[in-house]
């Protein structure tokens, strides 16, 4: 592997955990440098952007959702809904007040099937309210304007005029043509991602991807090995578990040298998603090997690092920090190459070397904390981690 060394920072980076709705997510924040601007580094060709604008009634949209072959609300995403009861109720109130909804964005595939990307939470909320019944439907709560008129009511309890108003509401949808390249489509959705709780990068990838990659990543993060190594991160509310599994898959498929050709994390992960979706590029035998290596890496990480697997763990500090994505990526790929008997014999030497690295090497710490997608940082952390994994030989 080519040795590339980033500039050395003057002090260790701060560790901050991601929070959502005041709830810790168990994942360390990845920071970008102040001068980092990936959009400028990857300009679009305007001729590749093809968008059609269409108008639908909400009744039409709900029918399309119920017809599984027409409009997809990303399976597995509903249970990870991130809006609270009050946000959902106020959206329904806005519709009843005839306040125009922001435009929606759909991705259309070659078969004419559309996937909701921007507006997923809004349409899921409306669908749950209107078509959910007493199972997944909800009652209106905490309204600001309509108050007693509809407070506490479910859809079936609304007077007929209110139901008609909701059904007849018109929405605007911008549909991205299937001829638009996937990386361009992803960048479009990343730019226009709106709403009360914007989707993160993995949630956007999930909405754009096909069933095959979703199933593979879900299976990888639903195993006992993964949950034991990550303190039960499987089924993460914001899909950070699947992003970590995707990072492993991306480097397992293409390695750091493959990353050099792409030179940015988002397109690298988007490329890996497309490969997992294509049996021609990654057949079922390769998927089985990928999942076996992933489970092996999880067992090995638990064996060597215990409760501190994939977390910063400096000398003299024994409290458990949140999981670090970059550490997950490099240690999982590295440990998948070793057998348990070998690691069992050398694990104390590996831990001591790794902890020293995370205490004294500020370049390494920076490479797993700030602008982690930089090529020099990716190569540096892989090189140093590989060296640490050889400790005790």
Detailed description of the structure:
Helix content is 49%, strand content 9%. It has 393 residues and is of the alpha/beta class. The protein has 2 domains: 41-198, no CATH class; 211-389, no CATH class. The strands form 2 sheets. Strands 3-7-5-6-4 form a 5-stranded mixed sheet, sandwiched between helices. Strands 1-2 form a two-stranded antiparallel ribbon. Residues 63-206 form the GmrSD restriction endonucleases N-terminal domain. It comes from Streptomyces litchfieldiae. This is DUF262 domain-containing protein. Residues 1-43 are annotated as: Disordered.
What's the structural blueprint in terms of helices and strands?
Elements lengths: L16 E4 L2 E6 L9 H4 L9 E7 H9 L4 E2 L12 H12 L7 E5 L5 E5 L1 H12 L28 H9 L1 E7 L5 H11 L8 H8 L2 H10 L3 H7 L9 H23 L2 H13 L6 H22 L19 H11 L4 H21 L1 H6 L7 H15 L4
Parallel strand pairs: 4-6, 5-7
Antiparallel strand pairs: 1-2, 3-7, 5-6
Protein name: DUF262 domain-containing protein
InterPro entries: GmrSD_N (IPR004919)
Pfam families: GmrSD_N
Instruction: Average the pLDDT over all residues and give the rounded result.
Output: 87
Q: What portion of residues belong to β-strands? A: 5-15%
Distance between the termini: 20 Å
Q: Biggest sheet, open or closed, and with what strands and sense?
A: 5 strands, mixed
Inertia-based shape: elongated
Share of helix, binned: 40-55%
In quaternary terms, these chains amount to single chain
Low-confidence stretches: 34-41
Q: Quick one: how many beta strands?
A: 7
Order of helices and strands: EEHEHEHEEHHEHHHHHHHHHHH
Number of domains: 2
How are the strands of the largest sheet arranged?
Answer: 3-7-5-6-4
The helix/strand class is: alpha/beta
- How large, in whole angstroms, is the Cα Rg? 23 Å
**Number of DSSP helical runs:** 16
